[in-house]
Specification:
CATH class of the largest domain: Alpha Beta
Number of strands: 14
CATH superfamily of the largest domain: Glutaredoxin
Largest sheet: 5 strands, mixed
CATH topology of the largest domain: Glutaredoxin
Radius of gyration: 46 Å
Mean pLDDT: 83
Oligomer: single chain
Number of helices: 14
Low-confidence stretches: 1-27, 39-46, 64-75
Length: 385
Amino acid sequence: MNQSLFEENEKKEEEKPEIQDNETGENDNVRAMESDNEESCECNCASEDKSKKNLISIVILLAGLFVGSLFVDSAQLVRGNGYSAKNLNKSDIFEAQGKTWVAYGEPAVSVSVINDDSCGPNCDVSEALVWLRRVLPTISTSKVAYDSTEGKDLIAKYGIKTLPAFVFNSNITKSDFYSQAKVLFTENDSNFILNTQELGLPVGKYLESPVVGAGDATFGNPDSKVKVVIFSDFQCPYCKVFYSSLRGVMDQYKDRVFFDYKHLPLDFHAQAAGAALASECAQAQGKFWEYADKLYSSQDEWSKTKDTAKFKQYAATLGLKTLDFNKCLDDKKYQDRIDQAKSEAADFSIAGTPAIFINDQFSSGAITADDLKKNIEDQLSKVSQ
């Protein structure tokens, strides 16, 4: 029995390790689960911490922007140096540093003013800019010297012949002023050149002189370096006065100067265009100057008529081939030549007659023979140096 009990105890002792082994396995499983839970908790906690940090960063950034905006607004108000965009949107007018600022619904328009400082009072643009700012208060001007690289490029690009010149950017088309005054502008490569002639601004300086056309009436020495170009209207009384001075000077300088006559019949002279056509028909028969003499000397007579009868009568008086002359006049054969001269005058901002170029020096009105000779002598002296 004791042996039996002893054997039973031994069996029990032998069975204990197995139980311990099972307990150990269970404990390992428990620890593994706990470890997984801890890792999962660490990942979730890390994610939550990151989200919190991002949220805090965003809050700090927004708070910083808000405080910064308040600081800028407050600083500007304290210093009186300006207004923030937020405050500007709340007012159409405000004052700062002794100036009054007004808001406009039109865009800012940039204007390049091409000029020559050495030109003097003739090229002064101050009055023109005052007027422009009244009709277009949002303009911003920049001064460009005509002989600078930028000035030369603009002059070449836009074919500018007179100073001062005003070149507007494309924003001008968005203004009320442009919608009401398109005729004052010529578009060129998305920019707009102000037609100073249409606006009535005087020319300060000419950058070049008109060229002598192949069909123009000319007189004198074609090889001369001094050329006198005249834009004239046969019905203009001032042109009549000037022409009488011109003819004497032409004879005196015929070997030293080249003279060129161009037509500019003004719209308010009813018979001026017909007279110009008639003179061209006489030119076709080699008698332009003789016919011009007759037109000016008889201005009071034919200017009161309404047809071409007098023009045809003068052709017969001067011994022209009347059939050819009359057909030429009736067909307006040389209308294109006259239109071309008018267009050239517009390019040089010439709107009145007589207009006289002696090389690049310009004179307008019925200047005297003495003044004409003096100007010619000045140019002769200049080209001889």
